[in-house]
Amino acid sequence: MSADPAGARILIVDDEVQILRALAVNLKARGYKVDVAPTGEEALRLAAEHHPDAVVLDLGLPGIDGVEVVRGLRGWSTAPIIVLSVRDGERDKVEALDAGADDYVTKPFGMNEVLARLRAALRRERPPDEQPVLETAAFTIDLAARRVVRDGAAVSLTPTEWGLVDLLVRNPGRLVTQRQLLQEVWGPQYGTETNYLRVHMAHVRRKLEPEPSRPRYFLTEPGMGYRFEPSPND
After folding, report:
1. Range of the domain at 24
2. Could you please report the per-residue DSSP string of 182-230?
3. Is the C-alpha dihedral spanning 125, 130, 135, 139 positive or negative?
4. Measuring CA to CA, which residue among 157, 151, 122 is closest to residue 139?
5. How far is CA 191 from the centre of its chain?
6. Which of 7, 19, 117, 206 is the most exposed place for a label (fewest CB within 10 A)?
7. Same domain, 111 and 165
8. What is the pLDDT of residues 6-63, one digit of tens each?
9. Is residue 100 part of a domain?
10. Residue 184 — φ and ψ, nearest 5°?
């Protein structure tokens, strides 16, 4: 893929004709190549045939549902998957994210939001240069040395706090689910102890955020998980 995400091939999967048409028109107008599928079966067929650079996927599909499509794609593809979901489908969204989706947008959605999420996902998908040191306006993180510096001084993080920071920073801009954080930081037997996350993320924010009560870098997606934004909008 070129440095410019425009020109990438996008697979749109939704059983609502109006949404398919609206997304296709807007993406084509911005230079993307577009495939559309009204069912999960058609989505998997088109993906295998055309190898999309990204997928925009509704969960509520006839036949194979959206979560199964995610699992099917993740069997062979690393293309970013952005889930579309109704507001009250939180459990399904978490299941889709745990299955391998990269992001979600709630229905009804604004077209500009979908396009922005898609551009961000495509930028992240480009193979990154090895950059073990990440610098923000507030702090610097050296992933290789497991070291954080803020205002010229080293910041002491507990092993648990470092585990959370490390996992989030290695997935910039991507929503990491509560279950994934718990299982990777605490262990595979964990998955529902969300109070652990709240407590330790509060500690991380107190140590790293310029305004811990108004976080700019370590963001909460209520009921879903957390997201690290290396370049927050002021």
Report:
1. 9-125
2. HHHHT-TT-SS-HHHHHHHHHHHHHHH-SSTTS-SSEEEETTTEEEE-S
3. positive
4. 151
5. 19
6. 206
7. no
8. 689 999 999 999 999 999 999 999 999 999 999 999 999 999 899 999 999 998 898 8
9. yes
10. -85, -30
